[in-house]
Write a structure and sequence with these properties.
Number of helices: 1
Largest sheet: 11 strands, antiparallel
Number of domains: 2
Order of helices and strands: EEHEEEEEEEEEEEEEEEEEEEEEE
Strand content: over 45%
Length: 324
């Protein structure tokens, strides 16, 4: 998918941060509904605008007054428009707060239509809301994109409210099918016990798009575990490569060094790259985080090793994604 606009930002390649992260959320923690549309990872992220990182970012510690909340993230969503979209939309695929994006952390969540035939991916940030309506898959995939500005009381870590007219952003290759037109969305988000985790990881090296040096300006860290693959840590974060903010999607596995991978996603598809973990480096994964001090080698088309290497060094502590 290479079309669209969401929240005033380009969709398609702009939805990488949203689509890929949302897919991870769906796989790890969300309790999806019965809609036929499944979030599809797409290259790209939100419009560049994040400041160049100058200091290591980390999530604040839990309050000394007691343990962190375990309440699930929840939302309410009421839609007005054509008959087949009007009404209260329920949860589908989950909620991700403190989601890294080029324009700063946002909140993304999926809602399911009252007739269970469509889903919307909503991207919420200060002063901006994007609504991507989808149904079907493959040749039957359809979508419509809308945007608005009626967002208030927004904090990417805790939630926000929205009451907004939305206007459609018509795409050259749009396939609206029988999807209804949305004219207004109202609702709220409560992030509950979600946390982004903590990171001291710095990235250094030279890439095809320029040098990289520094910590992530925003990030989210997630622990995963399965009987088949063991423990792994997933991290998404925004880093500056050359002069351009870039999304890195990082997988650090405990059992298979060859599974260590970084997807580097820029706003321009020409700046998208894959890097594989060099097994000679140091990687240790625990139930609560990971320590990394290793190179990642560029992978060219066809699987050959490229000329560029980047180095990750530091520690991460996993946050939580708790969805209703």
């Amino acid at each position: 998918m290479t079309r669209g606009s969401i929240g005033g930002r380009r969709v398609g390649r702009s939805l990488a941060a949203l689509g890929i992260v949302a897919t991870l959320v769906a796989a790890c923690s969300a309790r999806g509904g019965g809609a036929t549309a499944t979030p599809t990872p797409t290259p790209g992220a939100t419009t560049p605008g994040a400041a160049t990182p100058t200091a290591a970012a980390s999530a604040p510690p839990a309050s000394a007054a007691g343990p962190a909340s375990t309440a699930p993230a929840t939302f309410t969503l009421t839609v007005a428009g054509d008959a087949n979209v009007t009404g209260t939309w329920g949860p589908s695929f989950g909620v991700t707060c403190d989601n890294p994006s080029f324009a700063g952390p946002d909140i993304i969540f999926f809602g399911q239509s009252p007739d269970a035939k469509a889903v919307v991916l909503i991207a919420l940030m200060a002063g901006s809301i994007g609504v991507s309506e989808r149904a079907g898959s493959g040749a039957n995939y359809t979508d419509r994109e809308f945007k608005g500005t009626g967002v208030s009381a927004f904090d990417p870590a805790t939630g926000g409210t929205f009451d907004s007219d939305v206007s459609e952003v018509v795409q050259p290759n749009a396939k609206p099918g029988t999807l209804g037109k949305i004219s207004h969305v109202t609702g709220s988000i409560d992030c509950g016990g979600q946390t982004a985790g903590a990171s001291t990881v710095t990235v250094t090296g030279s890439t095809a798009d320029g040098a990289v040096s520094g910590p992530f300006s925003s990030f989210r860290v997630q622990c995963n575990s399965s009987a088949q693959y063991g423990r792994s840590v997933g991290m998404t974060g925004i880093i500056t490569i050359g002069s351009n903010p870039t999304l890195m999607i990082i997988t650090l596995p405990s059992a298979n060094p060859n599974g260590g991978v970084i997807f580097s996603v820029g706003d321009n598809p020409a700046t998208n790259h894959t890097y594989k973990l060099d097994p000679a480096g140091t990687l240790s994964v625990t139930a609560t985080g990971a320590h990394i001090d290793a190179d990642f080698v560029e992978v060219l088309a066809g699987g050959a090793a490229g000329p560029h290497r980047i180095h990750l060094a530091g520690d991460v502590t996993c946050g939580t994604i708790v969805s209703s």
